[in-house]
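Entry, Tuesday afternoon. Goal for today is a structural model of the target with magnesium ion bound, before we commit to ordering more compound. Inputs were pasted exactly as handed over by J.K., no edits. I checked the ligand SMILES twice against the vendor sheet because last time a stereocentre got dropped in transcription.
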Amino acid sequence: MSSKAAPRRSTIRHRKGNHHGSTRELTVRVNALRNFDYPEAILFDCDGVLCETERDGHRVTFNMTFKENGLDHDWDVDLYGELLKIGGGKERMTHYFNTVKETREPFKSQWPEDTEERRAWIKSMHLRKTDLFLEVVESGELPLRPGVRRLVKEALDAGAKVAVCSTSNEKAVKGIVKTMLPEFAARIPVFAGDVVAKKKPAPDVYELAAKTLGVNPARCVVIEDTRIGLLAGKAAGMRVCVTKSIYSEDEDFTGADAVFDCIGDDGDERFGFEDLTTPGSFWQGDD
Ligand SMILES: [Mg+2]
């Protein structure tokens, strides 16, 4: 779907003979059907869906930390994509410094020989990086992805609930919602961090959101950018629309109800709230 579909209206057509024997057509708009057609809630993932958090936030603040520590390293967008295969920020730094240790600082000359010292040093770098990340979030320098604001507004205007469901750092997720969507933040509950014991791909965070919001999971639409997130949404019995992010675009999205490159700003929409009906052509697998 390359452009926004026209809003759908349910109509019932009656053909009825009149006393002249001709047929006239009555068109009755059935607004009540809308209550069954539209989602009760749109549940957004945070990282990669609201913002390109990895590229514009984490990558940037790793680089800031290196600079502050006098280290001549700058992770560009492609290199960072490779490094993302290493889960965990501390593990990622350790892995990277190990791969360049023959020629580059800090390992070349300053690297603490002692394992405990190494661990402490990496930990302190990571703590600083986490602080810088929150500073970047709160400064509003982490832009929303195209169409996020529009879809949030359309959903709230239509009376649907909106929430953000993420298993990453609660402070960061709340910071993103508060800073980047200030006009809606009071109406967007955040389910994040350790609010559930099992992280995605477990359905727990989505199940908790549906229960707390008092909505039927089958009437929720999840917006995700990764296979792990897609699996979490489907396991919760929800419809899942994928908007691919820069580092997830090659993942396998088999099983998604719809796949797009983004939501899309005004004039460049891939879909809108009006498209999220069930059943409807939107959900029949085209993108
Ligand atoms: Mg994500």
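The CA atoms of residues 114 and 120 lie 10 Å apart.
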